[in-house]
Design a protein that fits this description.
With 112 residues, the chain is mainly β. Helices cover 13% and strands 39% of the residues. The longest helix has 10 residues. The radius of gyration is 13 Å and the shape is globular.
């Protein structure tokens, strides 16, 4: 478990879970899970295909506030649509979660 700028990186939590949208369409897979050490809010970095493995690629950040986690099927279902998630703020390859990115993500999804 690594700590970065007020966020803890939970390496194995939700690792390789599939992420689907409200219609059941696959968005991608979880790369990394982050938890805000102050308020315990969790976020997953989601990549589609080879994102995260190739230089210059990025992972979309999804707050678990708007998701349902099914540990039996290793699936996270977002309560929104694929295009909304794909257009959300993202982490570039090798970058870490920051308070500024968290604010952008929460604003994008209209969360307080």
């Amino acid at each position: 478990m690594d700590s970065t700028g007020g966020f803890r990186k939970l390496g194995d939590r939700y690792a390789r879970y599939d992420v689907v949208d409200a219609d059941g369409e696959k968005i991608g897979s979880v790369d990394t899970t982050y938890v805000n050490e102050v308020d315990q809010r969790e976020y997953v970095a989601v990549s589609g295909g080879l994102a995260g493995l190739l230089p210059g690629t990025s992972s979309t950040v999804l707050p678990l506030d708007i998701c349902a986690v099914d540990n039996n099927s290793s699936t996270i279902t977002a309560s929104t649509h694929r295009d909304t998630v794909k257009n959300a703020p993202s982490l570039s390859s090798g970058a870490e979660m920051t308070p500024e990115l968290e604010a952008q993500v929460r604003s994008y999804y209209r969360l307080q």
